[in-house]
């Protein structure tokens, strides 16, 4: 069973499920329903040619406990009915946590795709999810060397940890050529290399009025020098109480292909997204991360990402500097479009079905 529920899951589940099925595994796609707007959900199925979910749990939004608890309640009977050999979960969202916990408690083997990234910031709900999911998983499929190092420090045995690379980059590389052909830049009246792209949705940035105000101030100032395009996440849209200045064009969350086209064509990306940090590094686009920490340090050490925090003056001066002196693009090892193949190499072997209970 492959579990997806929120926007950053769809581009990760697609290549892995394809690869597992190509090798003869019978897969069921379970959609928890954590994200449900067309722009946060359906459009990804269409653009990525991801088949309709075999099972839809319809959980929707709520507090962390509501969302996680309802997902667990809905997922448990499905596991009882289907008795899978393996539950594959992706990333760090609440759907990932809920389904990993259910499977682990039912004695079903769990594979975690994107195991090991750590921000070290326990105020981030995703950090709680990452650490907990890894703890109950049998197969820890790590996207990069630093993730493997984190797991070693936490005491995981080498047999459980597999460096496979970043499956999200498999999907990116498979789609970047079609993304470049999209007319999104023309439609928005912007030119390649002459605009900035913004995404913001972390609770620490958008739920705190003071922090959000400072970030918007920085965007307004940058927008006077470089037009900014800001596809707005629904959480941010809900929190926003002011209009943005003309230099900052707010638009609906974008479909995958148009968004990748924007990432690829931007002179600069300003973001607090995990996936966008990784994708901009893979594309070689300069990125400023509006946070004090990152679970993707290789995008800073090797890629085009820079951590800048939330201070408006610092953001403005770093943006100017990065546009003037873009960092050289360098992609972390195994972000090569073949990560899903390595996932399947680990999960499908000539031996017996995956075994639960190797967590220790
Ligand atoms: C979730 C993930 C986060 C991920 C992000 C990707 C958790 C804890 N957080 O955050 O790690 O980076 O998705 O986008 O799992 N909403 C809609 N329509 C939708 C979905 C959400 O309007 O289709 C609104 C609702 O008001 C909801 C709010 O957005 O309450 C937050 O949604 P939720 O899934 O709880 O968290 P995200 O902020 O999206
Ligand atoms: N993305 C998209 N449209 C948008 C914003 C993001 O298709 O308007 C894609 C982006 O290319 C990446 C993923 O969504 O593949 C990142 O998800 P998000 O930022 O929501 O979550 P995070 O990675 O922070 O968990």
From TrEMBL:
Pfam families: Epimerase_2
Superkingdom as given in the UniProt entry: Bacteria
Key words of the record: Isomerase
InterPro entries: UDP_GlcNAc_Epimerase_2_dom, WecB-like
Domain UDP-N-acetylglucosamine 2-epimerase: 20-347
Gene Ontology molecular function: any one: UDP-N-acetylglucosamine 2-epimerase activity
Known EC number: 5.1.3.14
Family: Belongs to the UDP-N-acetylglucosamine 2-epimerase family.
PANTHER family: UDP-N-ACETYLGLUCOSAMINE 2-EPIMERASE
Protein name, as recorded: UDP-N-acetylglucosamine 2-epimerase (Non-hydrolyzing)
Organism: Saccharopolyspora mangrovi
